[in-house]
Amino acid sequence: MILFKKRTDLYKYIEQQRKKKLKTGFVPTMGALHDGHISLIRKSVSENDLTICSIFVNPVQFNDPSDFKKYPVTIENDIYQLETSGCNILFLPDVEEIYPEGTGQQSSYNIGYLDTILEGKFRPGHYQGVCKVMERLLKIVMPDNLYLGQKDYQQCQVITRLVGMLEFEKRIKITICPTLREKDGLAMSSRNMRLSETDRKKATAIYRTLLYIQKNINNSEFTVLKNEAEKILNESGLLTDYIEIADAASLKTINRRDDKRKTIVLIAAYMNGVRLIDNMILDE
Known about the structure:
Layout: E1 2-4, H1 7-19, E2 24-29, H2 35-47, E3 50-55, H3 65-70, H4 75-84, E4 89-91, H5 95-98, H6 119-122, H7 126-141, E5 145-149, H8 153-165, E6 173-177, H9 197-203, H10 205-216, H11 222-235, E7 239-247, E8 263-271, E9 274-281
Parallel strand pairs: 1-4, 2-3, 2-5, 3-4, 5-6
Antiparallel strand pairs: 7-8, 8-9
């Protein structure tokens, strides 16, 4: 595996490989890698000649500075996992490399209502920061295939919209891969590293809540169902940001089941200050 820290060096190398007609896959991450990330790497390796992973903890997508400071960093283990999973290139830039003009420069991306609902509502400015870094990374790597995880479902939609806004949709194919879970159902997440063993067990209530909604979606009023779901979370010590039932294609809230469109349940909740998100598409 080759490690690049400078965007110009990475860009030149990928262009050389592209001239050889090599197909490229890209997995952007913020590090603290787990099996969910590695599943994306392996998917890329199986479908491309060259797999690129980036590790960059993007400061401009954190609306809470303390959350940024606490984000886990495990770079040595990350490199080991990437090497053993067949990754060809690691892009490991510092903040100045991605934002040479500084992080204070404002950007504005018209991603519509996705910027004001769910994660956009509870983390103002978050998706503007995601778009800012993803635009820069995509212009450097310009992959044939981009691999994203379903756990960050709304972010997948934001990045898909960004790719369209940049007019890259004919060059970049986006593949959204299923959420990987621990044996007890907890969605794999870098933030799980910040949970104590006791809190980690309690956090499995998020998955149990998703299953509860899936089981009762056809038998209860949505308002009642969400209230009962919140009780399950609260009883396990989770503080809820939102529990929402939405159209899976648009993420617009729905109040009744429609068999003609896929339905998704999305949850965000805190366990002792650690914010966790998860979702489940009910029709799969």
